[in-house]
Amino acid sequence: MAVAEGAGSQVKSAVRTVELLEFFAGRPGMHSLAAVQESVGYPKSSLYMLLRTLVELGWIETDATGTRYGIGVRALLVGTSYIDGDEVVAAARPTLDRLSDDTSETIHLARLDGTSVVYLATRQSQHYLRPFTRVGRRLPAHSTSLGKALLATYTDEQVRKLLPETLEPLTEHTHTDREKLIEELAQIREQGFAVDREENTLGLRCFGIAVPYRTPARDAVSCSVPVARLTPAHEQMIKDALFDARDRLLLATRRL
Amino acid sequence: MAVAEGAGSQVKSAVRTVELLEFFAGRPGMHSLAAVQESVGYPKSSLYMLLRTLVELGWIETDATGTRYGIGVRALLVGTSYIDGDEVVAAARPTLDRLSDDTSETIHLARLDGTSVVYLATRQSQHYLRPFTRVGRRLPAHSTSLGKALLATYTDEQVRKLLPETLEPLTEHTHTDREKLIEELAQIREQGFAVDREENTLGLRCFGIAVPYRTPARDAVSCSVPVARLTPAHEQMIKDALFDARDRLLLATRRL
DNA sequence: GGGCTTCGTTCTATATACTGAACGGCGTCT
DNA sequence: AGACGCCGTTCAGTATATAGAACGAAGCCC
């Protein structure tokens, strides 16, 4: 899960601390010491001390017996603060509201982190049929319109370095070949936006556009529509609204 | 900020790691090494290694120069996973939706953590005039209806152990005397719900009720209303809806 | 019911992370 | 321009966290 960078001397306990937190985040629910040990591979005794420390600090919680561990409340505050402190998210707020009003569909603002995109802000569609989303959620870049729009601002060579040759499929429509994806990126650069045709979630088509306030781009906005509700006219309207939103966001972030 | 529990040997780097994360969470924006050092008090060189490690892992980010630090994207995922994995939050979803529909006001589900309450879920009022809220936000227990409803499920003696003698005022209406608060808690036990009369935010009155699926209670729901919109009839309707929501939540969480 | 496995916890030598001082680069003040 | 002060970075001795094994307590099988 976590990419261990091949860098020089790191503080071992710090690495383990965040790896542990990421482990618990990735597997909600309570886990025994042995189960955690199995997954992370640290010696039992070392793990034991670490867990005890984190429990005392409230970052990990135990059940009543004290032998099963899960993520703690303290972790919650830190995560959300990333959003609070981000100038781009703050500057994007009115644009996202506007985009949500214009399209009446679910809107996402996301950031590329490694090979994933992370949702930074969402505007939920008020329709009964709507995609499930949550700020902080991570999705593979190669299967989302957001990710593809962002990858298209990288050179082909950079993309080859970033992504593995074969990509993990999420639905039957996911493109799993990196070179095929790179061909698609060229097309995305031409038309200015990316489309996800049920590559990430069956029944959902997404339109994504990068916000190039820096190069390569870091953030993108998207609009997700259930295919059941999509008409050519609606699609055109969404694309227009996205281009408009992109321009507004560029303006709002030009000083960042 | 972080309450250093007086327990036995802890893993120093782990403690510092989460303390650092909490520092960055508490002060959004970028900070120089010296500024961080000033705040947390660790030796410069120790801090330097820790920061470098966390930057490599993506939990802390640097600006272009590499000398100013801020919270990183990686922290975001872990925080939100606490919500995702929580059975109470999951079970409460339909009840919160219903409460939001019934009252048309802002709804909160929160959990007591030390002397603070932490928002676990919110339903925003669709009115133009609405309180600012965010999941993960922490507020003092003594100044909120949520916190007071929860504290009322503790004994007076437990409350005395938990809270300091004088409480920090947030507005001119905040009760700052612990013994006065304890008197109010007795009244809350009688009537079954708590009220915050602009003690936390000027112009905002909140009604809170504990969900006693365990004793003492851990979670509470509240409804926040701008005083400008509050009439006796509206207030009665809100209280009824809260009692109803409490009963539903008890039912939904009886197996947890 | 006894022995066996499994799991959490404690113990102690050893590897290693921490610290305080020294270094070097940069901006600034006179 | 020169010197000072500030800040990030490196270095080496020492305090300390780590890891493997031993311990103790449940639960399980026969």
From TrEMBL, chains A, B:
A GO term, aspect molecular function: DNA-binding transcription factor activity
Domain of life: Bacteria
UniProt source species: Actinacidiphila alni
UniProt cross-references to InterPro entries, sorted A to Z: GAF-like_dom_sf (IPR029016), HTH_MetabolicPath_Reg (IPR050707), Tscrpt_reg_IclR_C (IPR014757), Tscrpt_reg_IclR_N (IPR005471), WH-like_DNA-bd_sf (IPR036388), WH_DNA-bd_sf (IPR036390)
Gene3D superfamilies: 3.30.450.40, Winged helix-like DNA-binding domain superfamily/Winged helix DNA-binding domain (1.10.10.10)
Domain IclR-ED residue range list: 74-256
SUPFAM superfamilies in the record: GAF domain-like, Winged helix' DNA-binding domain
All copies of domain HTH iclR-type, residue ranges: 11-73
Keyword Protein transport: no
Protein name per UniProt: Glycerol operon regulatory protein
A Pfam family per the record: HTH_IclR
Keywords of the record: Activator, DNA-binding, Glycerol metabolism, Transcription, Transcription regulation
GO biological process: glycerol metabolic process; negative regulation of DNA-templated transcription
Function text: May be an activator protein for the gylABX operon.
